[in-house]
Write a structure and sequence with these properties.
Chain lengths: 639, 152
């Protein structure tokens, strides 16, 4: 209970706006209710780490249509795209394309990829039409979230049917010829509620013209998300995501794709959870995904394995994840105890892999991994204003090709409330990232899998001081990260290996928001990262944003200017070595909404208006924009 | 898989135990203050508004609210609050101003003067000018931004 008091205190500081307590005007009461009773207040876990929340109001005002609209401005992260048009989230200065450090949860269910370790390849452009809010935990999240540990956890929560008040139909079209349509149905009664969301999207991207060719990242996608809840005791979620996208440069030696050059993903999951006695929750889930790559390049394609030259590749892969977990929490006199046990089974298989006419379907290396985990987290209220947190998680991992491993994660935290206006958080986190099948087996890639790979080990310390003065909030934070056994590509052998080097980096940030009036708000953020060794930056070391929220009657205006520092990218790549100069990126977005009636919203959004947006280094093309310059018009009808 | 199966047994045993009854959500102070403001505006001569409520469990804004006295007798009420559409027989008996708690009910209950409801994650208020005039209600100035001429 004491623990919940300090959490409540922190939550009050988080968004509380003090515009007077007397006979407040009705509009302020409504605004405060919208903030204080917002859905995220029920899900956000302030003791779980350093958290940034994108509230429902934020996402609506930003007109965030896909997760990319949020990822592009997350602190310490730069959104980039690779040679297949795939999303790459690079942490300040680093280059970590296959990293499992980014974890994505939808309504508490982790969507992951056994091959890549992280589901960001597939979900980075996930439709947000069914989403209420997004929480981003950085610097080592709570181990008690379960599943495998990560360094940054993005928790997405679907809309609460009880707060929707009806259903919505929306249609959008943009200046590049893209468009989307979605339907979100909700229903509630005393005992039950449901949400059903269906959307279709045609994303048209600016073509990149080079070498007398036109390279495309166009994408078609479909999303279904269904949620059924019964009196908070039982919840069933079923979801299906699929997209088919052009594979941009392809994987040919001379980047001369012709004919089919596309990647198709399908990911489905079901998740059932029951609230049991003694505040325990039992959860069962199953994920199934398939992805197919059809890549043609008459100029020839060559990989480390198989090593022969081919011009046509058609491969289809299946991934399965099954999970059962039991978790609970228990309040005692001085705090609370969270506990959990879980079992995860991951599988991967090659359905077919034609290298021209040769079909190689037997994966080398492991294709099955079982993980059994147990964890406990104690939150101890040392004084009325000091909360100590200690977490330990032990994982036993066994795959079908190599030895067993036992890994553990440890997390220590201290939260101090100086006053109702000011708080401080400090976390120490020691964890690991187990290599996915993409590193350890013969999944198609530019480097050969290595079944002998060890886990990457991380240690970090992150602190944040927050000061709130009613209309303004100031946050200053620092992060120090250490990494051992980093997985890198051996440039000679073209095989994944554990690096003998020790990597360490530091990061600082400053985040400030000020509400001039309830209708006008400004947010600023700046971060800077640096290496503690002599390393060159392979992604922006610093960045930030400026956001302006304005309301004029039934009009809502949102402006966002994102900054990412320039750098020189140099790295041996699969198609050669060299360097690419990336200039400072400035991405300016304006989003305007008009609510002429309560059941109708018209929207207009302009992206990359300065035409100097964030860019990725792509060998063969140079600095390539990741955000297109376009205007999107939308209409949403509520019924 | 066998070991994972063992993990399943434990919760099934626990699941066989009796289920707890979940408490209804705590009433929000802000929700009470908003509800009081609306209902007092509809009956300006009353310090404590007598409310007849119809439709499922009583909303948090009406429960334990010092400004509101819930009554089970329609005839005793100053205002009627509807959480769901009532039968025609009940509707015909209502002579008091009606506030509905769903936007869609404004269409079905033609005598409802306004609605207080959650829509797309935000709390909203709508008052219909013509219906207020018909009921002889003049709202304070702070309601101006919530008054609409037409129900679309």
């Amino acid at each position: 209970m004491v623990n919940s008091n300090i959490r409540r205190g922190l939550l009050t500081i988080l968004i509380f706006s003090s515009f007077g307590y007397g006979d407040e005007p009705l509009n302020l009461l409504l605004q405060r209710l919208g903030q204080e009773d917002a859905y995220y207040k029920k899900t956000v876990d302030e003791s779980a780490g350093i958290v940034q929340v994108y509230t429902r109001e934020d996402l609506d005002r930003m007109q965030a249509h896909t997760l990319k609209d949020v990822l592009k401005s997350i602190r310490f992260v730069s959104y980039e795209e690779g040679i297949l048009g795939e999303a790459i989230l690079a942490t300040a200065g680093a280059f970590n394309p296959l990293s499992a450090m980014y974890r994505l949860y939808i309504d508490g269910h982790e969507v992951s990829s056994p091959i890549f370790g992280s589901a960001m390849y597939q979900f980075a452009e996930m439709d947000l039409g069914f989403v209420d809010h997004i929480e981003v935990y950085q610097g080592g999240n709570a181990i008690a979230f379960g599943n495998e540990p990560g360094m940054m956890t993005i928790r997405v929560y679907s809309k609460d049917p009880r707060r929707e008040g009806g259903s919505t139909l929306s249609v959008r079209g943009d200046s590049l010829g893209g468009g989307s349509a979605s339907l979100c149905l909700t229903g509630v009664d005393e005992e039950e509620s449901y949400l059903a969301y269906l959307s279709g999207d045609l994303t048209r991207r600016d073509k990149v013209e080079a070498h007398g060719r036109s390279y495309s990242k166009d994408r078609n996608s479909m999303t279904f998300y269904g949620k059924y809840e019964r009196t908070k005791r039982f919840r069933f979620v079923a979801a299906h995501f699929q997209n088919k996208k052009d594979a941009f440069l392809g994987i040919g030696m001379h980047q001369t794709p012709e004919g089919p050059n596309e990647i198709t993903w399908r990911h489905s999951f079901v998740d059932l959870s029951w609230q049991l006695p003694y505040r325990t929750v039992f959860e069962l889930s199953a994920d199934y995904s398939r992805h197919r790559m059809q890549l043609d390049d008459p100029g020839g394609i060559r990989f480390p394995s198989p090593s022969f030259l081919f011009t046509h590749f058609d491969g289809e892969y299946a991934e399965e994840v099954y999970k059962a977990s039991l978790k609970g929490d228990y309040d005692h006199r001085n705090g609370s105890l969270r506990w959990g046990v879980e079992g995860i089974e991951k599988r991967y298989s090659i359905l077919h892999a034609y290298y021209d006419s040769v079909n190689l379907t037997d994966p080398e290396g492991p294709d099955r991994l079982s993980i059994l985990s147990a964890y406990g987290e104690e939150s101890w209220h040392l004084t009325p204003s000091d909360l100590l947190i200690g977490t330990l998680k032990v994982d036993h991992l066994r795959d079908n090709d190599r030895r067993d491993d036992t890994e553990h994660s440890l997390r220590l935290g201290w939260i101090h409330l100086f006053s109702i206006n000011s708080s401080f958080k400090l976390f120490y986190n020691r964890t690991y990232l187990y290599p996915g099948f993409g590193y350890t087996s013969s999944y198609l890639k530019f480097a050969q899998g290595n079944p002998e790979l060890e886990s990457e080990h991380f240690q970090n310390v992150m602190g944040e001081w927050k000061y709130e003065t009613g209309r303004s909030t100031l946050k200053i934070g620092v992060l120090r990260q250490e990494k051992n056994h980093a997985i890198v590509i051996d440039p000679q052998r073209k095989i994944y290996v554990n690096s003998p080097r020790h990597f360490s980096a530091g990061k600082v940030y400053l985040d400030y928001s000020y509400a001039f009036t309830p209708e006008h708000r400004i947010e600023l953020e700046y971060y800077r990262g640096w290496f503690l060794q002599d390393l060159s930056a392979k992604s922006p070391l610093s960045g930030g944003y400026l956001r302006l929220y304005d309301t004029f009657g039934s009009w809502e205006l949102y402006q966002e200017l994102i900054y990412r520092q320039g750098y020189t990218f140099s790295l041996p790549s699969p198609i050669g070595t060299g360097s690419i100069e990336i200039h400072d990126g400035w991405d300016y977005t304006v989003a305007l909404q008009w609510h002429p009636r309560h059941d109708l919203t018209l929207s207009l959004k302009g992206e990359n208006l300065l035409n100097s947006t964030l860019r990725s280094p792509v060998f063969g093309l140079g600095a390539t924009p990741v955000i297109d310059r376009k205007i999107t018009l939308g209409v949403e009808y509520f019924f | 898989m066998r070991t994972i199966g063992l993990f399943l047994l434990v919760p099934w045993l626990a699941f066989a135990l009796p289920q707890p009854v979940h408490a209804s959500p705590q009433g929000s102070t802000l929700e009470k203050r908003i509800m009081s403001k609306i209902l007092r505006a509809l009956t300006p001569h009353r310090q404590r508004v007598r409310v007849y409520y119809y439709g499922g469990s009583t909303p948090a804004g009406l429960r334990n609210n010092d400004a509101i006295l819930l009554t089970s007798q329609l005839a005793d009420a100053d205002v009627v609050v509807l959480g769901s559409t009532p039968p025609r027989t009940l509707l015909r008996k209502i002579r008091q101003p009606i506030l509905v708690l769903e936007y869609g009910m404004l269409r079905h209950v033609s005598r409802a003067v306004g609605a207080y409801f959650w829509q797309k994650g935000r709390p909203n208020i709508i008052m219909i000018r013509s219906r207020l005039s018909r009921a002889g209600i003049r709202l304070p100035a702070e309601f101006d931004r919530y008054i609409e001429n037409t129900l679309w």
